[in-house]
Structure formats: structure tokens, C-alpha cells
Amino acid sequence: MPFQSNTPPGPLAEKWTRYRGTMNLVAPNNKRRIEVIVVGTGLAGAAAAATLGELGYKVKAFTFHDSPRRAHSIAAQGGINAAKNYQNDGDSVYRLFYDTIKGGDYRSREANVHRLAEVSRNIIDQAVAQGVPFAREYGGLLANRSFGGVQVSRTFYARGQTGQQLLLGAYQSLSRQISKGSVKMYNRHEMLDVVIQDGKARGIIARNLLTGELERHAAHCVVLASGGYGNVFYLSTNAMNSNGTAAWRAVRRGAYMANPCFTQIHPTCIPQSGEYQSKLTLMSESLRNDGRVWVPKKQEDAQAIREGRKTGNDIPEADRDYYLERRYPAFGNLVPRDVASRAAKVACDEGLGVAPTGLAVFLDFESAIMRYGQAEANTKGISNPSEAKIKELGEKVVEEKYGNLFEMYEKITGENPYQTPMKIYPAVHYTMGGLWVDYNLETNIPGLFATGEANFSDHGANRLGASALMQGLADGYFVLPYTIGQFLSQEIRTPMIDPNSPEFEQTEKDVENRLNQLMNIKGNQSVESFHRRLGKIMWEYCGMSRNADGLKKARKMIQELREEFYKDVFIPGDAKDYNPELEKAHRVADFFELGELMVVDALDRQESCGGHFREEYQTEEGEALRDDENYAYVSAWEYTGWDEDPKLHKEELVFENVELKTRSYK
């Protein structure tokens, strides 16, 4: 397939409507003869499998979980964006499109982003019809709140568990199709390779995680909805099982990996407390609606807090630096995630961190509690309420909005966030990079599609909060079910794919050889220890900030660590049995290769944009400095074997509807 975006012609606002109305279709009688594999059952995968099953295709859905309900989409707590303009505050499809393009620092494809903004409105209607319990205003209308990087309220939410509720909605739709027989569900199965036959994706090799057996599964096309690869950093907000193997195995078969260095660092995570930790906990960005971020102005106060001699409550207002409000007055605490994260790092680098490690800032709800409390007192007709009464009333309002998040924070840290400010620090959260896809969400391998976080298409160099759920459901419910027809309409005369063909046999043998190679190393070090060491390299040299010397050093360190891994990793058990350590080892082996590509991509992109901050390229005020003349393109990397450098393909980004300019949230 030629390397092109296949974006339809016409005015931006009309592209999707015209294209959807004129694209190739598959008739109902033909859909019954076509098989589709969907890998992953998060929002993107469950929505796609359910919708394709409803349309009449024969779908096979795969998850490594014991139930689709356990997909990591449940962890997206804060909300989902949609351009409904229920608040009548000036929102529109174009404004959501523009905010997303700007928030991504002008490194995403205009047509894809505008389509996302258009279909966002349908998602809310779909979810409400499924019974998703969105928060509502007093009059019964769906409530909205603000998220970072925007000046309107467009985020729909179900308290602090939006992702879980949306996934339950998608899961019930999927369950309906499973009960009807249009979707066959394969729980506890992990995809370990994609099968290419005559240049097209025709199936996968999966490992039954309970028995260890390898299985061949054939279909007319394959959809990867397998999520992101943030766990290459070891410590992240992702579930421990989240991994990049499905996407990376596609890369090893010829698919392009786009913008792999674009990693999102989330500013509101519970700080790391020790070396023993295996993951970090996200505190929803929705907290930045009412919480104020600050550090002490004086290093001696910060030192006293770190040593336990003072608390945040001991610092008078005059000695607090609300640095986001000071640096970015127009957006304040609601600047985009990459901006807020770097600002927190700067504050801690200056010695103003408030955790024992020195790596934390405060997120304070005191003023919100008092503001809400006063409003409640007025509503209830309480005249001259005491400060204690105002606080009591305000805490109840905050509890209604964020109660489960506050409860989670207290259980993890032992501190009551109603009484003392939360401590937060940035952590790896989301990967904007992913498999390169065209307008149809098809990779450069015909018949291989990628949706949700598994692809690169919509977020550029930084994802705005509450847009992950939006993209996953948009792709699964409203985009892929149309665009997949462009490929499948040419396959209606193709008979069922034979899983006993030589291509399937060879691919299965390749997987078996990889697993046996890992089992036969019989070294002395655990998989976990290698993963932790890789994560430290990635965070130190390819994390919140990068520079050329550090990236060159990191690549060499990754190569050396990978060599050590293949000589000295220890994997107990047997390949043909239940073996979680073997699962982990295979994923970490892929992380070594993917991590190196991330470093190569970061070194090649000699500019700063969004989550990719090269220290050599910044403004006098320490903000990201883009180079639109030389780097306004998608970096799509082709795997060529690790004996030589990967090959770079460039998709030039053309901006006809927005003006390229330096982002400003001041």
C-alpha cells in the first residue's frame, strides 16, 4: 500500500459526511461470510467487536483478561469529551477540533481530528442509551466540567469512574453479541504474532494463557485495539499487564510505528514512595477543576515539609507559590498535561518539592471547599455561618464530586485530603505514538487496522484530558465499522481463510521458537529486575525531558541491557503450561526493541513539541520550541532488523484550517 493518508477531498467540515455517504459497503448477505478478528476488549475493542457483530460480521474477540470488563479502560476516571455545548459557553465541533490540534502542539492530522470532534456528539447519545449513569445537573440535563487545555466545559463524567461505566456499557453490548453468536469471545488469550498472507493480514497466533498452547486464528482482516505501551517505563499509571506486544509484533511484520517518542506524562499522580513499587496511581485530572497547585516559596519551608517538621497547612498564604496560576494566568491550573508536568518538574528541580523524595507538589482543595460551603450556606438560607459550618458544607459538595478519588488517595497515602493538601507528581500515563494508520484506520499492511491508543492518529504530541475515552469509543462505534468496509468490500469473494496454510504454520513456528529461546536461557536474574532497569533508563533519558547526549547514552544502555537479558534472564516453569513469567518475559523482550525505537525517534526529532521536550530546543521562558519548517510531519518507522537503523518514512502534515503558531496558555 502506498504510504499516504487517504484523506478524502473536500472542505474539512464536510469530509467525513461525504466520505461516509459514498464509501464502499458490504451487503448484509455478504457480511455473514466475512470474519473479523478484534484484539483487545477495552473501549475501542469492545465497541468495535459489538458494532461489527451487530452489523452481521462474524467476529472473534481476544483478551488476555479473564473478562473483557477488566480492560484498562476502567482506569480512565475523569470523563469523556464531547462537543454538545450543553453549558452554552461557546463550545462547538470546530472548537473541540481546534483545542485538540492545539493541545497536540500541531502534530496531528487535521482530517482525523475533525472527524473525532464530529462523532464525539454521537458517543454521548450512545452511552446514555446504554444506561451509563452520567452526572446530571439539578434540572436533569447531563452535567459537564472542564479539563486541561480548554476554556469551556465539555467533559461528561460519571463521578470518578467514567471509564468503568463506559466500559460496562460497551461490555453489555458485546455480551449481547456473544449471546447471539455473532461474536466468539476468547478470554485469557494473548496475541503473539500477526499472520500475513499474500501481503494482507489474515489472522493471528495466540497463546492460551491457561494451557500454554499456541493457537491459529484466521479471518479476512485483523483489528488491533490493544492499547498503549506506557509500561516500557516500568513505573506508569497503566495496569501491570498493559503492554505493546500486539502492536510491536505487527511492526516486526512490516507495519509502521508512528511517533513512538510522543509519551504523555500525567501531572496528577500519587508520587513514588519507594523502590518496591511496581506501578503508580493516577489521580484524575478532574481534580484540577477545583484543586490549586502550589509549592512553598521558600526552600527552607519545603525542606521542613520533606522532613516532617511542617505540613502544607503550616505554610501561610503569602508564602505559597501557585505557580501555574502565576505562569499561565489565562488557563491557570487547567493548562494541558505536558505544560503542567514540566512546570512541576521545574519547581522540584528548584528544591521546592514537598515529598521525602523531593518529587511532589501540592494539590490543594481548601479554597474550593470554602467556596462551595459558602454557596451551600447561601442556598440553605444560613446567615452568618461559622467557618467550621462552611467547611462542613463544602466538604460534602467536594465529596459528591470527587469522593471516591479522595478515598482512594487516603487509602494509599494515609493522609486525609479534606484536611491537608494532596501531594502529586507527574508520571507516565498515555502514549500518543502508535501504529501508523490512514484515514480508514488501516495500517500500511492491507487488512490490518488499529484503533484507540494502539494507533497514533488523533492526539499529536500531547493528548488533552478526557480525550482517550472519546477516541476509543469514536473509533469503535462510529469510524471503524464504516471504514473497514473499504477493505472488506473487495473481499466478499474471498473464501474463509485457512489456518492450516503454510503462512500460519510458519508464523506459529516463529512464535514457538521465540518462546523456546526465552525458556532455554536459564539465567539468574528475574524478568522483573530487567524491566525495572529498562524503565529507569527510559525515565531518566527519554522521560519528561530529553537531550541528545542522554538519548545516545540511553540507546547504548538499552542495547547492552537487552544483550544481558538474552544471556541471564531466568524464567521458571514450562512453555506449554500456565506461566505468567513467560508472558512477562516476552513482553519485556518486545519493550527492549520498542524502547530503543522510542529513543531513536526522540533523537531524530530535533525540536520540542507537546510531551516531547528536547532541552536544546526551548524558549527563553522554558516552553517547548517547535520547528514547523523541518518537523511538521509524522515520523513513521519501518523495522529493518536491529543490525541496522530503522527506516524513517515521513507523512507531511498539512494545515489548511488552523494557523500554526506557538501554543500559549498565558
UniProtKB/TrEMBL annotation:
Q: Which keywords does this Swiss-Prot/TrEMBL entry list?
A: Cell membrane, Electron transport, FAD, Flavoprotein, Membrane, Oxidoreductase, Transport
Example GO CC term: the record gives: plasma membrane
Superkingdom assignment: Bacteria
Tell me the InterPro entries matching this sequence: FAD-dep_OxRdtase_2_FAD-bd, FAD/NAD-bd_sf, Fum_R/Succ_DH_flav-like_C_sf, Fum_Rdtase/Succ_DH_flav-like_C, SdhA/FrdA/AprA, Succ_DH/Fum_Rdt_flav_su, Succ_DH/fumarate_Rdtase_cat_sf
Localization per record: Cell membrane
E.C. code: 1.3.5.1
* Active site, UniProt feature: 337 (proton acceptor)
Names of required cofactors: FAD
Membrane topology term: Peripheral membrane protein
Tell me which residues make up the Fumarate reductase/succinate dehydrogenase flavoprotein-like C-terminal domain: 531-665
GO molecular function term, any single one:
flavin adenine dinucleotide binding
Q: Which GO terms describe its biological process?
A: anaerobic respiration
Domain annotation FAD-dependent oxidoreductase 2 FAD-binding: ranges: 36-469
Which reactions appear under catalytic activity for this entry? a quinone + succinate = fumarate + a quinol
Q: What is its main location?
A: membrane
Homology family: Belongs to the FAD-dependent oxidoreductase 2 family. FRD/SDH subfamily.
NCBIfam families in alphabetical order: PRK07573.1 (NF005749), sdhA_Bsu (TIGR01811)
Database matches in PANTHER family: SUCCINATE DEHYDROGENASE 2 FLAVOPROTEIN SUBUNIT, SUCCINATE DEHYDROGENASE FLAVOPROTEIN SUBUNIT
UniProt name for this protein: succinate dehydrogenase
The species this protein belongs to is Phaeodactylibacter xiamenensis
